[in-house]
Write a structure and sequence with these properties.
Elements: H1 2-16, H2 25-37, H3 50-56, H4 69-82, E1 86-90, H5 93-104, E2 111-115, H6 119-122, H7 127-132, E3 135-139, H8 149-155, E4 167-173, H9 183-195, E5 199-203, H10 207-214, H11 218-222, E6 227-231, E7 242-246, H12 248-260, H13 269-282, H14 286-303, E8 306-309, E9 315-319, H15 327-335, E10 347-349, H16 356-375
Helix pairs in contact: 3-13, 4-13, 5-12, 14-16
Length: 400
Amino acid sequence: MSQDLAARRAAIAQQVKFDIITESQAAENDKARQEVARSFISDTITVPTPEMYSYAAMASLGDDVYHEPSTLALEGHVAQLTGKEAAMFVPSGTMSNQIALRTHLKQPPYSVLCDHRAHIHKHEAGGIAFHSGAATLLVSPANGHHMTLEDVQSHIVLDRNIHYAPTEVVALENTLNGTIIPQDEVIRISDWVRGQGLIMHCDGARLWHVAIETGISMKELCDPFDSVSLCFSKGLGAPVGSCLVGSKEFIAKARWFRKLFGGGMRQTGLLAASAAYALTHNFPKLLDVHTLAKKLEADLIELGVRILSPAETCMIFFDPSPLGIDYTELAERADALPNPIKIGGSRLVLHIQTSPQAVDDFVALIREMAEEKKKSGFVPANGVNGVQKSGDIYVRVKRT
């Protein structure tokens, strides 16, 4: 009987075992890195480097639900960096934002006021309604760029009329579509909103870009807010993770919601160390990303491409239609290059692993296609460049 049991156990072990590393894994990883360098889809696609992996492998071996030293050290550093009392590491920026709002919002009815383009509204699967039962008040900035105090004042609900959901949180996003909200306007909004006894939240997934571009410290950028979400896996290039910062009382309650949302992770030392490596080694590279994005914008303008939103940091929104080119045919031609380039539509996102050669090749492709259109009789439009003030500039390619 014991021999039979041992044989069955051995058979189960054979069924369970699995090796995900292919024989050509090293070559596949090299190819993946090359593809990342030539993709303008997003800055979320950046991949860890061997150096980041080596550093992360030395992290502590705790359990974050109980006690994880490397993660606690990262949280302490980010709290100090932002001038807040406490911080909490979470798997994603979406979870960070949604936990923040759920922690702030106590008893409905209530509403959250934000830009109509905001990630918390458009790209978090309806989380504000689902998790917090909150209405969303959407603002289309009058200046076409960023929300102002006047925008907030004209949309906020302050009275207790039973027909409406009173506003309890005003949420700003910085950067938003790669653009920077002027700090003096952030302060104007915050002073007035907090003066009404309401809460300020910042989706600061790419706030690192604002700091390096403007020279304003992270503390100064975070001071006007009661809570801020900061991402490590976008521009900074870590594999996973965000931090939510705020008061000790706020973060203590947020940890409860993190557990409830399924975000209580275990051996997070590897992830925390990757984030720490990114802060030290990748943050300074963001300025080079901005420089490359501005070069790309200038090259596109020279060709006659319409710029819908300029390269203030790492993003450009563009429209090639003045040259007779649409997004789908451009994406297909870029895919078909000997060394392919990936675009997703009107948004071009540059990151710390973007190759300058990819930028040059992309511009060369548009130049080539524009010449083809001219030869076929298309007359390029003139005087069309500028920032689009209304409508959704985020157009995605529909691939067949």
